Every structure is written in structure tokens, then in C-alpha cells.
Amino acid sequence: MANFFPVSSPAVSPPPSRSNRWLEYVVGVGVVASLGALLFCVFRRRIMRKLREGLGRSRKGSVKEEKLKLRRFEFEELEKATKNFSGEYLLGAGSFASVYKGVFESEGEIVAIKRPHADSYTSLDEFRNEVKLLSSVKHKNLVALVGYCEETTGNGRERILVYEYVPNGSLLDYMIGRGGRSLTWRQRVNIAIGAAKGIGHLHKGMRASIIHRDVKPSNILIGDGMEPKVCDFGLVRSGPVGDRSHVSSQIKGTPGYLDPAYCSTFHLTPFSDVYSVGIILLQLVSARPVLASNQPLPDSHIVRWAGPSLEKGRVEEILDADLLTEPCNFEVMLKMGQLGLKCTSQQPKYRPTMGQVWQELEEALHEADNFWKRKRLMQKSMEIEYSESIVSTEGIRFGKFRVGMDSFAFESASLKCLEINSVSIDVDHSTEKQLSAAANDEQNKD
């Protein structure tokens, strides 16, 4: 009987149990979760910012950065940049908001952070509309909006605007001489021109006109090269559109700079800003407060005080005393003062536009520059003519002279013309004999 041996077969592993598969799954999920948590901790700020931006874009009426090209700041960033909004970083405070200097040390960037008071905005839509409105404002004489912060914190809702930082204080600082600041007559005219151009851009350079409503010296900042920049757009309103001449609005602004026509009718127009600019022109000439505390109303107002002198052409009666200590163009300052009176006319229809204001000021400055150029050329020409007519030889000065001797005459402006090749002399012989005889008689006497 044959012996049969079993044929060997390859070993087959038993199928893994269900408990082992579950263990591997749990371990894998744990590793992925740990890695995700680690990445989240590292990139937490960036991830949270993207999530908030996504939520903001999904909400109806929210601000869209990709269209506005604005930066959306985190509240934590702004806290750090202002040292938790400390007093040492406070640039100014008003009834609407406080403005802080923000320093982003890692980026080497400085901004101005405007943090409104809790009740400044009646709704979130009001804040978003302001952001959208200001995002389209681009002009070298207007402070630019850099970004915003829209966030709910433990202290409530934060609605913050972030502007470019302007380093040299406000026009008010220069008017009152704060920190020894002062302005020459030419700087005053250039500041008025720049401010008028900025406000004129709001009125005419936008798709829809904007009325500032709070133009005053403290809202005109001084940048590099003494360039003015209009700021604080907390009270801006869209202007009239189409055939409408005005928009109806509650009275908001600063006493003294408020347009009387706006106050009496509630009709807001771009000429309301023109009135405020007119007050500033008068202040640039006189450095006087808009309302004098030592005089009763209405004589305390700068328009009533300056008007009589400017109408008579006597600008020196109201001129800032600081301008009397250095060369000053009285004609240009008179022009600026009289233009200020036009801007503050009681009836808005008689006021110039912002474009006309800066054009007239530029023309006055241009005429003044041309006058001084012509005067300097005349002086230089006279100096050259005088220097050519004066020759000094051995301490003796010879001016223009003329010698005449019957048929012998010549005229010269300098001794160079006495060179033999440059002068033709005709001498009568009888005259020559008479001269020789006279010379001999003089020698005999000696």
C-alpha cells in the first residue's frame, strides 16, 4: 500500500479581528486630530481671520473686503497696537469717538485708530454703510481709510475704523501756537488750497457727492511737506442727487462753523461745507477764535468782527500779529480774507464752489509769485547796469562821462572804450595849436 504524504501549503494568516481594526481606526483619528490641533494653534490667527471674513461675506449687507480693498483687523491686534487703548496713545477725543495712535511693531506700521463710543452707531448697517462710503474716498488731501474692525467681544460690539496716520498735528495746533508751531503767510495759503481741493473732491470728484458737515481746524491734519489732509468723516452725508438741491438732515456739526442757512431750514447742501471753509480762511488770516468769549453775540462771531475791515481793504487791522514779524504779502492775505467773506454769505447761492475757492487762491498766489519774479529781475538788471557804469582805478571812481571840444567828442560807459582801436577822434589843427599854447603857458608859470 502506497504511503501518501500530505502536500505542504503556504501558511495563511487568520483575518484580523473586528476589535483590532477598531483600535487602528481610533489611533489614526487621534494622530490626525493631534496634528490638526497643533496646526490650528500655530495658525490660529490666520484661520480665525479667514473664518470671520467668510462669515462676513455670507451675511446680507456685510462688508466685502475683496471689493473694498480694505484690511479687516482683529480687535486683539488693535488692543496690542494701542497698549489696550491706553491714554499715552490717545491722539484726541470727542463726543463721537476717541482716536488712538496704533503701532504695529512687527510690521513697522503706524495708523490712527478711531474707536467710537458705544452709542455712536444706531445699527450695524450704519457702520457698514460708512465703511463702504469711505472706502471709495481717495485723494491726497483726504485722510485715507486703511481698514476696520467689526467684532463682538466680552465688552460688547466693537465697530472701529483705522485710518492712515498723519504725523504733524492739526491746523488748530498751528493756529494757537501749540508746541511753538507757527505758519508763514505762504503756508497758510497752501493749506487753504489743499483743504479746499480735498473737500471739493468730496463734492464733485465722487460718483455720488459727499458732504462733510464738520469742517474745522482740528479736522485738518498737517502731513509731510505741510500738506493738509481733511479727516474725521463721522458726520458725512450723501449729497443731493439728480435735480434735488439739498438733502434734509438733522443739524449736526460744530457751533460757529455751522451754516446758518442749514440751521434755519434743515436743508443740507455742499455750500454748507463752503461756509465752514470760509470761517477757516478768516481764521488763517487773523488767528482768531470763531467765537470770541469777551464779546456778546452776534458781534463775537468772526464774520461780524472781520467783515468791516476786509470790506474797506484794510487787512492789517485784523492780521495775525505773527505775520507782522516777517515779510508778508498783504495783498494775498486780503484776497484770502475777502474770499472768506464770500464763502460765509448768508444766502448759499452767492457762495463760490469749492473748486472756485482753490482756483482763486492759486491764482492770487501765482500773481504774487510773478510779481516778485519781475521785481527781482528788475533789481538784478539795475544792479548789472550800475556795476557796468562804475569803474574803479587806483581808488578813483569814474562814472559815465561826456567830453566835448568843438570838433573833439566821445562818450563812454567804461574806460575800455579809450583803447585806440575802439575810438575814432577827429581834431581840428587850429584847436590843437591853441591847446599846445595853453599848455606851454602853464609850464612857464610853474
Automatic annotation (TrEMBL):
<feature type="binding site">
    <location>
        <position position="114"/>
    </location>
    <ligand>
        <name>ATP</name>
    </ligand>
</feature>
<protein>
    <recommendedName>
        <fullName>Protein kinase domain-containing protein</fullName>
    </recommendedName>
</protein>
<keyword id="KW-1133">Transmembrane helix</keyword>
<dbReference type="InterPro" id="IPR011009">
    <property type="entry name" value="Kinase-like_dom_sf"/>
</dbReference>
<dbReference type="Pfam" id="PF00069">
    <property type="entry name" value="Pkinase"/>
</dbReference>
<feature type="domain" description="Protein kinase">
    <location>
        <begin position="85"/>
        <end position="365"/>
    </location>
</feature>
<keyword id="KW-0472">Membrane</keyword>
<dbReference type="GO" id="GO:0005524">
    <property type="term" value="F:ATP binding"/>
</dbReference>
<keyword id="KW-0067">ATP-binding</keyword>
<keyword id="KW-0812">Transmembrane</keyword>
<dbReference type="InterPro" id="IPR008271">
    <property type="entry name" value="Ser/Thr_kinase_AS"/>
</dbReference>
<dbReference type="InterPro" id="IPR000719">
    <property type="entry name" value="Prot_kinase_dom"/>
</dbReference>
<dbReference type="InterPro" id="IPR017441">
    <property type="entry name" value="Protein_kinase_ATP_BS"/>
</dbReference>
<keyword id="KW-0723">Serine/threonine-protein kinase</keyword>
<comment type="similarity">
    <text>Belongs to the protein kinase superfamily.</text>
</comment>
<feature type="transmembrane region" description="Helical">
    <location>
        <begin position="22"/>
        <end position="43"/>
    </location>
</feature>
<keyword id="KW-0547">Nucleotide-binding</keyword>
<dbReference type="GO" id="GO:0004674">
    <property type="term" value="F:protein serine/threonine kinase activity"/>
</dbReference>
<keyword id="KW-0418">Kinase</keyword>
<dbReference type="GO" id="GO:0004672">
    <property type="term" value="F:protein kinase activity"/>
</dbReference>
<keyword id="KW-0808">Transferase</keyword>
<dbReference type="GO" id="GO:0005886">
    <property type="term" value="C:plasma membrane"/>
</dbReference>
